[in-house]
Amino acid sequence: MSERVYPAPPEYEEFKKQIRNLTGIDLNSYKYQIHRRVHMLMQRWRIDDYTAFFRLLKDNEDRLREFLDYLTINVSEFFRNPPRWWEIRDSLIPNLMELRKSKKLALWSAGAATGEEPYSLGILSAEIGLKVPPKVQAMDIDAGALAKAKKGHYLKRQLANVPQEWLQRHLEPVEENIYTVKQHIKDRVNFVRGNLIDDAFSEEHFDMILCRNVVIYFSPETKSLLYRKFFNALKPGGYLVVGSTEQIFEYRKIGFASAGPFLYQRPR
């Protein structure tokens, strides 16, 4: 059964402009389904006026946080999809170290959310013995999410994929069912606020970019733009790791070579 489509009223155009001014997020970069999610959240909160809806988001930080989480469907856990992480550990990073003849690699978590992915990358880099600097770069547009990431507190259930010996080395309990990331891992990660669509990236700077489960609601045009920017931001031989539902169909046209399922490499 197909999902019901809700037509967007004229007032939605002004709402999108207001949201962009408030958060930096351009809802025009997303597929049409994003309006359906906005509409359903308004129904849940019993609001039928976009002006009132925006006023609530502007004046209530908790509601804004819920709004952003609902739109992006954040799934927060360390080492999400473990086989991909073990591939990064056992194959991708060793390949890059051999290619660069160095233990210094520039790694980027693009769409860092509340920090689970960049801290996972930081733990992995520590276990492999990568040198710092450079730090893992962790970018997200959401200032509230980045504030949580910098604090580094996580529920125990979010750490289910962390090997026990790594858990003991790199995190510590602060209260019942809550752990915090130890300082030596925090020192490996640099959190910055940025906009993947609008910001310019340093060309040929990164050895590996992780952008997983970030672009799922982006329009095809926005995805194409972003993947081209990622290509230009990678050093020759560098890898782009995407989510398991985010196959890049035009990867050859962009210039990538396929390095495996949902894994792309800029040719050397």
Q: Overall mean pLDDT score? A: 89
Number of strands: 10
Biggest beta sheet attributes = 7 strands, mixed
In spatial order, strands of the major sheet run 6-2-1-7-8-10-9
Shape: globular
What value does the Rg take, in angstroms?
Answer: 19 Å
User: Structural class, from helix and strand content?
Assistant: alpha/beta
The share of residues in helices is 40-55%
Per DSSP, what share of the residues sits in E-state strands of 2 or more residues? Answer: 15-25%
- Helical stretch count? 11
SSE ordering: HHHHHEHEHEHEEHEEHEHEE
Spans of at least 5 consecutive residues whose pLDDT stays below 50 are none
User: How far is it from the N-terminal to the C-terminal residue, by CA?
Assistant: 46 Å
Oligomeric state, counting identical vs distinct chains: single chain
